[in-house]
Specification:
Order of helices and strands: EHHEHEHEHEEEHEH
Strand content: 15-25%
Number of strands: 8
Number of helices: 7
Shape: globular
Oligomer: single chain
Radius of gyration: 15 Å
């Protein structure tokens, strides 16, 4: 097994910006912990950064402070930054080429938001033949309300973890993942 840790959208927008992640409460510190563990074991860490292409974007506007990858993540050793414009980390990016060049067969998902970019990237990876690990406490989300209804961050997060475990990935806590390295 040759794995890479995909750290998805750990950008200021989700820490100090308009979309603060609220669940699980220690997701950011767990992301830092798994990045450190990956670096200790020489597992490639690939940072994925979301950019809104909308001219009048109010979130993830390229060049804004909120668009920046959080400095505590960016300052850690990483192989590459992959910029994306849609929820899936593979869509219109060079992520697949990077993984192939590194000989990766397993991707580990950490980052934000559980139900959007983490879930989409995990599903894409599984469809492409990668083994997928999804870190339950190193991914995170927020309460969501829209025309379809309202859902708490905890319920939304849990629903995605249950769905991921049903077909798409092996769901692990960060401590379980680290102990398996």
């Amino acid at each position: 097994m040759k794995r890479a840790l995909l750290v998805i959208d750990v950008q200021n927008e989700y820490i100090t910006g308009k979309l603060p992640i609220s669940y699980p409460p220690n997701s950011f510190s767990n992301i830092l912990k798994v990045v450190d563990a990956a670096n200790e074991k020489n597992i490639p860490v690939i940072l994925i950064q979301h950019t809104s292409l909308a001219e009048n974007a109010v979130t993830f506007k390229k060049g804004s402070n909120e668009w920046n990858i959080h400095p505590e993540i960016l300052n850690k050793k990483h192989t590459q930054v992959v910029e994306k414009n849609l929820p899936g980390g593979f869509t219109n990016t060079n992520l697949e080429a990077v993984l192939k060049d590194l000989g990766i067969d397993t991707v580990t998902i950490a980052g934000f938001m559980t139900q959007m970019c983490c879930d989409t990237t995990a599903r894409q990876a599984m469809h492409m033949g990668y083994s997928v690990e999804f870190l339950s406490d190193a991914t995170g989300t927020l309460q969501l309300s829209n025309s379809a209804g309202n859902i708490s961050a905890e319920d939304l997060h849990k629903a995605i973890l249950v769905t991921q475990a049903a077909r798409f990935s092996k769901v692990l806590s960060s401590d379980e993942w680290i102990s398996n390295l």
